[in-house]
Known about the structure:
45% helix
Amino acid sequence: MRLTRLSKNAPLDQSVAALTDAFSDDPFFEYFIPDPDRRRACLTTIMRANLLLTLQAGQTFAAIEDDGRVAGCIGVLPPRAYPVSLVQGISFMSRLLFLPNPFNPSPAALLRGLPYLQAWDRLHHQVKFPHWYVFVVGVSPEFQGRGVGRQLMNPVLELADSDQCAIYLETQKQKNTGFYSRFGFELLSTEQPVTNGPTIHTMLRGA
Length: 207
């Protein structure tokens, strides 16, 4: 398996597919889009938009098997790149909203997700100092447990250490907090924006 930095001209389909597989059972997306078929369709749109944003404004890496399959992907934003610019934000949202069904979230889904969007933004703004932001990271279930996540995290750790910066991330899977703690991340906050909805865990690795 090799780690490759993706470029703006790189084919994204396999990286998008790996992230779609990785997030299909994410508690937020199960809450956001309960129907599994529509969830996968929307995840394809969302993950493509995520990667296009990190390709434009940050750095993106993929773990690729010897046979060419993408096992996982990570997209990060550098210090002070969040919040994204107005142009980048409009471009990101247009990729989500102006596609035909079932590839765009329904109005009901958008209403369910709004408290989480607001909470993610508010919690992130509590980090006042420069930091790298893990915008999206995931490993296809087929390749989990084989060290792919560690491979994906390594270049981000190197970038942050080179800049002497912290790294910030969110996860809705509590079991992921143990994985990230191995890299020096500490739990920063937990919040449940909606009763009976998933919990947001924010984590920080200091400089």
